[in-house]
Amino acid sequence: MIIWKHIQAELDRRFKETGVENVYMPMFIPESLLNKEKDHVEGFAPEVAWVTHGGSNPLQERLCVRPTSETLFCDFYKNLIQSYRDLPKVYNQWCSVVRWEKETRPFLRSREFLWQEGHTAHATAEEAEERTVLMLNVYADFCEEVLAMPVVRGKKTEKEKFAGAEATYTIEALMHDGKALQSGTSHNFGDGFARAFGIQYTDKDNTLQYVHQTSWGMTTRLIGAIIMVHGDDSGLVLPPKIAPVQVMVIPIQQHKEGVLEKAAALKEQLAAAGVRVKLDDTEKSPGWKFSEQEMRGIPIRIEIGPKDIEAGQCVLVRRDTREKTFVSFEELETRTKELLDQIQTELLERAKAHRDAHIYDAHNYEEFSEIIQTKPGFIRGMWCGEQSCEDKLKEDFAATARCMPFSDQEEISSVCVCCGKPAHRLVYWGKAY
Amino acid sequence: MIIWKHIQAELDRRFKETGVENVYMPMFIPESLLNKEKDHVEGFAPEVAWVTHGGSNPLQERLCVRPTSETLFCDFYKNLIQSYRDLPKVYNQWCSVVRWEKETRPFLRSREFLWQEGHTAHATAEEAEERTVLMLNVYADFCEEVLAMPVVRGKKTEKEKFAGAEATYTIEALMHDGKALQSGTSHNFGDGFARAFGIQYTDKDNTLQYVHQTSWGMTTRLIGAIIMVHGDDSGLVLPPKIAPVQVMVIPIQQHKEGVLEKAAALKEQLAAAGVRVKLDDTEKSPGWKFSEQEMRGIPIRIEIGPKDIEAGQCVLVRRDTREKTFVSFEELETRTKELLDQIQTELLERAKAHRDAHIYDAHNYEEFSEIIQTKPGFIRGMWCGEQSCEDKLKEDFAATARCMPFSDQEEISSVCVCCGKPAHRLVYWGKAY
Predict the structure, then answer these.
(1) End-to-end Cα distance, chain A
(2) CA atoms B332, B333, B335, B341: torsion sign
C-alpha cells in the first residue's frame, strides 16, 4: 500500500501539471446506465458483480459495481456541460473497481483492484486526440523515470482496443520471463459516448455539437510489474524513487558499546537529509536482517559495527548488485544519495538492455513459430490488418498483438507474418499474462 | 472532493504522528465472515448491499459491500498476529463504504460515503482503551483546529453504541439549526471480536491471550458539518484551513489598462507566499463574481480597480463578516495571512458562542418537554441508566442521548430527567439528523 501511495503521489503531481482535477463518482452503476453504449456494455457486462439486494429487499433495478466509470461520467457530463465555455473537463478519480475475472493472478488480474481513471470531455476531435496521446506519454515517462521500467508506446488493434473506444493507445512492458504486460492505456472515444448519452454543447456559433471524450487508467498492476521487471530469486528489488524504505541501517554486534547509538545517529543523519531510512535494532541476527531486507527489496543496507566505527566508516551494500562500498561518516549523505540515484539509473538501463535483447524480428509464419516457441520476448512482425490473422496467432501460440508502435514503424518485410498477404503495419507481438 | 482531500491530508498527518499505517482491504465481505460476531451482524445485516451474481453466474456465497471492515481486519489479524512481538497493529484505510439507508440526506446520510476506518489490535485492555481515547481526541482537536467546529467529547449509551463494541466514544457538534451531529466515533471492542474470530497471541510467559481491539472513523459527513456550522443564506463559509481557494482576486473595470496585469501580479504575489489563491478574469460582472465566490465560501475576496491601483492599495473583503479592509500592496502577504488566521479563529469563537448559547439544563420531564419543543440545542439532563427512559424520550420528542460528556460530569439534579428515579449520569440530549 505504501508503494501504491508513492505511485499515486507521483502520478497525481504529473496529472495536475496537465490540468487534471480529482473528483469522485459513485461505485454503483444502474443496469440501464451501463446499457447505454452498445460496445461498452457488451465488453463489460459479462464480467461485472451485480448488487441485487439492499438489506433484505430485492432492488427494483440491479446495480453493477463499477468495472470502469465511463457511463457515470457521461451521465454527469450530460448535465454539467452546456456551452463551449464549460469545456474542456479534465477529471480523474482514484478508486477501486471490480471485474469478475474467472482466473485471477496477484497484482496482475484481481477481481478488485485500485486504479485511477481519467475521463475528459473536449470541444473537438483534435483536442481529444491530443489529450489521449498526452496521458499516454505521462504514463510512459512515469514508468521510465520513476519505476525504472522501459515501455513500448503504441496503438492497440481493433480486436484489442477498449470496449466502446475509437482508438486505444497502450504502453507495453517486458517482464523478466519475456512476457508482455500492458501497463497503462489511454482511449479516444470520439463522440461515440456523447451520442449515446446526449452530451452536447453550444459552440461559439450557437450550434449544438457533441463533445469528444477520452479516458485513461493505470492500476496496482504496476506493483506486479515492478516485481517482475526488477525482482530476483532473493525477492523484491525496488527502484529507490518508489521504495517505502530506501535505506536500512543494520548494526553488527549491536550489544557492543556505542554500536546502537552510532547506528541510530547514522539513521538520523540520513533522515535529516531527506532519505527514507529505518534502523533495524531488533534482536534478530545480522544475517537474518540482511535476508529480510533483501526480500523486501530495500535499495541500500548500511552495515555498521565496532570495527567500522573505529575506522570512521560504514558499509553500503546495494540490493541490486550486492556491491559493497566503504563510506566515511562525513560523506554519508552525499554518497548515499548518489548511490540511490545510480541504482535508479542502472535499474532502468538493465531493464532496457534486457528488453532490447528480447526483441526479435519475424518475417513469416515459420520464423514467428520458431521464435515464439523458443525465445520469450517481443516479436516484431508485419500485419495485414485482418483480425483472422490475430485470431490464428492467438490460437496457435497464445500470442497477441501487443501494439502497433508509434516510433518504431519500419517495414521490416512487405508481407503479413501470418497470412503472407501484403502488409504495411509493424506490430509488437507477444505472450501476455 | 478538494475539501475532502484537505481533510484527508490533515487527518492522515495527525494519524501518522500517533503511529498509524495505511493499508487497504477488499470491498466485499463474504456472508459467512460478516456473520461471525453476533451483535455486529445484527447491527449491519439489515443495511448492506448484497452482491449475488458475478457476470451471469450466481455466486455460491453472497458477498456484502463493506458497511465497515471490522470482520475483514479480524480475518487478517487472525493470521498476522502470533506473538506479543507482533503487537500493536495500528492500521487505517481510506475508502468508501455502503449502507443501504432507507432515507438519505446529502453528506449526512448517503448510501455510499467516503471515510477512513482505523482498526487496531493490542496486547492489553488498557492499551486498547488508551488508543480509543487517543483517536477521539485526535478527532476533536482536528474539528476545532481545522474545521473551526467545537465538539462535545463523551461516551455513547449502551443503546447508541456501535454494533459489537464494548464502548463507543463520540464527538458531537451542534449545527446552526440546533440539531446535533455525531461527527466522529471511536470504539473499544475489548476482546469480543478476538474471541469470535480467534485472534490470539503468545505473551512473554508463553501463554495464549486474546488481543484487544479498537476501531474509529470519520466520514464525508464532516463536509455537511462545515456547511451547517458556518454557512449562511448566501452559501458556504469555509474555514481558511480547509478552503480549496482561500483568496479570490476580482478585478474591477478589468478592461481598463493595467487592471488585469495588476490583479494577476497580486495573485502571483500571494501564491508565492503559500496562499491558495485564484484570479477570476472571466467576462462576468464584478457583482456576479462577488455572489459566486460568496456562494462558494471563499474566505477572502480581493477587489482591485483603477482607483485602487492609483492609491497603491487593494480591498480585502471577508466572506464571514463582509468587513472591508484597505491594504497597501507592500503589506498584502502579511495582512492576508493575518486575516486568514483571524477568520479561522473567529469562526471557531462564533461557533463556540452559538453552541454555548444553545445548551440548556432540564431537571425534570416537564422542563425537558418545554425546552425540546421550543429551544433547539443540547439539553443537559440526568439519566438513570435505563433504556426505557431513552426510548420514551425518543418516542415523545425524537430526542436521543447524544453522549455522556467526559469533562462536564456534574450532578445538576439527583433524579432522572425522564422517570424521576435516582440518577447520577449527566447526558447531553438532542435531536439529530
Answers:
(1) 23
(2) positive
pLDDT above 70 covers a percentage of chain B that reads 100
| Residue among B4, B26, B100 whose CB faces A54 most closely | B100
Within 8 A by CB and 6+ apart from B381, the residues are: B361, B362, B363, B368, B412, B413, B417, B418, B426, B427, B429
- Closest C-alpha among B192, B212, B190 to residue B201: B212
- Could you report the per-residue pLDDT of A303-353, keeping only the tens digit for each? 999 999 999 999 999 999 999 999 999 999 999 999 999 999 999 999 999
CA gap A273, B319 in Å, rounded:
42
Q: Is the dihedral of CA B369, B371, B376, B381 positive or negative?
A: negative
- For residue B40, the model assigns a pLDDT of 86
Whose cell is 463489460? That residue is A44
Q: Which of A53, A92, A278 is the best mutation test for B, with the most CBs of B within 10 A?
A: A53
Cα–Cα distances in angstroms (integers) from residue B203 to residues B190, B193, B199, B206, in the given order? 17, 19, 13, 5
Residue B225 identity? A
Q: Which residues pair with B196 in a beta bridge?
A: none
Rounded distance between C-alpha atoms, residue B153 and residue B402, angstroms: 10
B284-322 per-position pLDDT tens digit: 999 999 999 999 999 999 999 999 999 999 999 999 999
Cβ contact, residue pair B49, A51, below 8 Å: yes
Query: Is the four-CA dihedral A127, A132, A138, A140 of positive or negative sign?
Result: negative
Report CA-CA distances (Å) from B262 to B210, B265, B310. Answer: 67, 5, 11
**Side-chain half-sphere CA neighbours of A11 within 13 A:** 30
CA distances from A135 to A180, A346, A427 (A): 21, 26, 22
Per CB-CB distance under 8 Å, the chain A contacts of B4 are 24
Q: Is A91 helix (H, G, I), strand (E, B) or coil?
A: strand
Chain B contacts to A (CB-CB under 8 A): 1-2, 4-5, 21-24, 26-28, 45-56, 63, 65, 95-96, 98, 100, 111-112, 114
Contacts A55 to B, Cβ<8 Å: 45-48, 100
Contact B54 A5 (CB under 8 A): no
Query: What does pTM read for this prediction?
Result: 0.94
Q: Which residues of chain A neighbour B5 with C-beta distances below 8 Å?
A: 22
- The answer to whether B117 and B99 have CB atoms below 8 angstroms apart is no
User: How, if at all, do strands B208-210 and B21-22 pair?
Assistant: unpaired
In angstroms, rounded to a whole number, what is the distance separating the alpha carbons of residues B370 and B379?
A: 11
